[in-house]
């Protein structure tokens, strides 16, 4: 495992002192991926209240074409603003720009290829007003393919069978990330306390952020799915896990989260979290093995053992090593 530097978090200054701030800021970050942007925009516009209650903006990460701006101009119909980064920044930095530019009391960062289901903002507003103590609200999501066909209903938080408030969410969230990023809305003043997204994380900046948020206070949860989360070859979800080193980042995020827990909880949460990381590594190993990439599968088997030493994981290492040796021998013949 690599040696990680201490994390640094961008400072989020308080919102500008304006006479009236909207309840909502909906920010849609994008970069060279305009294929679904119009659909995402339309899903927001169908249910958006007036500009006094919701601002909507596309934040373009210096795309190499003008497609996103054209979509905002034609489909936004003057209701959606457009901001273009002067130069390319990291994904995390672009998400932080979304927060910094938000005037609303609540910030929703919606991915440019995802869709909010009708009723999203009404349900979230109702939860916020009913539970003023929550610092963030999220719902379940439904994963969809390129064509928008439903695939799977994403899991609920542990032991939850209905909507409500998660008052001790940090431990379970460290163990396993059950929050779909574009389903999460966060109070802007909470971002002002915890800072922006960290550039230290390339694979899980959202999960690391949600752990910081959960350490501040309770989370509101909507059991009904109000988000369609698109999984395709261009999405980060589809590509994650093909490189074993990516799990090193997950482990570092886990350790940072554990550092925010009371000392008496840390041992059990760490054990459960590392076991879950090992399970993810083994899932990736099985997929790579089915594809015939036995060398990469072996890397994942080794990672799984390091995270959760067990006789079963030893056998997986042996199996992956033998398959890798067999393929190498066949190539020599």
Overview of the molecule:
By secondary structure, the chain is an alpha/beta fold. The protein folds into two domains: 216 residues, Alpha-Beta Complex (Spore Coat Polysaccharide Biosynthesis Protein SpsA, Chain A); 76 residues, no CATH class. The protein is built from twelve helices and ten strands. Strands 1, 2, 3, 4, 5, 6, 7, 8, 9 and 10 form a ten-stranded mixed beta sheet that branches. Helix 2 links the parallel strand 2 and strand 3. About 2% of the residues have low confidence.
> Which CATH top level class of the largest domain fits?
Alpha Beta
Structural class: alpha/beta
String of helices and strands: EHEHEHEEHEEEHEHHEHHHHH
Shape: globular
| Rounded radius of gyration (Å) | 21 Å
Domain count, please report it.
Answer: 2
Strand content: 15-25%
CATH architectural grouping of the largest domain: Alpha-Beta Complex
The biggest sheet amounts to:
10 strands, mixed
Classified in CATH, the superfamily of the largest domain is Spore Coat Polysaccharide Biosynthesis Protein SpsA, Chain A
> What is the end-to-end distance?
36 Å
Identify low-pLDDT runs: 235-240
Here the CATH topology of the largest domain equals Spore Coat Polysaccharide Biosynthesis Protein SpsA, Chain A
The average pLDDT score comes to: 92
Helix tally equals 12
Q: Would you count the extended β strands for me?
A: 10
Helix content: 40-55%
């Amino acid at each position: 495992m690599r040696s990680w530097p201490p994390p640094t978090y961008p400072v989020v200054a308080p919102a500008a002192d304006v006479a009236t701030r909207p309840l909502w800021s909906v920010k849609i970050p994008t970069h060279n991926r305009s294929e679904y942007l119009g659909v995402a925009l339309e899903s927001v516009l169908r249910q958006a209240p007036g500009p006094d209650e919701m601002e909507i903006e596309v934040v373009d990460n210096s795309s190499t074409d003008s497609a996103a701006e054209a979509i905002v101009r034609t489909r936004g119909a003057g209701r959606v603003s457009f901001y273009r980064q002067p130069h390319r920044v990291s994904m995390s930095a672009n998400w932080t720009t979304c927060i910094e530019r938000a005037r609303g009391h609540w910030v929703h960062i919606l991915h440019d290829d995802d869709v909010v289901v009708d009723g999203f903002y009404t349900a979230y507003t109702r939860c916020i007003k009913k539970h003023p103590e929550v610092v963030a609200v999220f719902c379940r999501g439904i994963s969809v393919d390129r064509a928008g066909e439903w695939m799977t209903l994403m899991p609920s938080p542990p032991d939850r069978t209905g909507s409500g408030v998660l008052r001790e969410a940090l431990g379970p969230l460290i163990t396993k990330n059950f929050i779909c990023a574009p389903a999460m809305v966060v109070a802007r003043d909470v971002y002002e306390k915890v800072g922006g997204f960290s550039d230290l994380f390339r694979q899980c900046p959202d999960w690391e952020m949600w752990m910081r948020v959960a350490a501040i206070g309770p989370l509101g949860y909507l059991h009904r799915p109000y988000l369609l989360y698109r999984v395709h070859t261009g999405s980060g979800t589809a590509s994650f896990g093909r490189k074993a080193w990516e799990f090193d980042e997950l482990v570092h995020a886990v350790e940072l989260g554990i550092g925010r827990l009371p000392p008496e909880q840390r041992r059990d949460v760490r054990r459960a979290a590392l076991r879950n990381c090992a399970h993810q590594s083994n899932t990736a190993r099985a997929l790579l093995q089915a594809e015939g990439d036995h060398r990469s599968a072996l890397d994942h088997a080794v990672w799984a053992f390091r995270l959760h030493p067990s006789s079963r994981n030893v056998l997986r290492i042996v199996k992956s090593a033998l398959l890798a040796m067999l393929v190498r021998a066949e190539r020599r013949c």
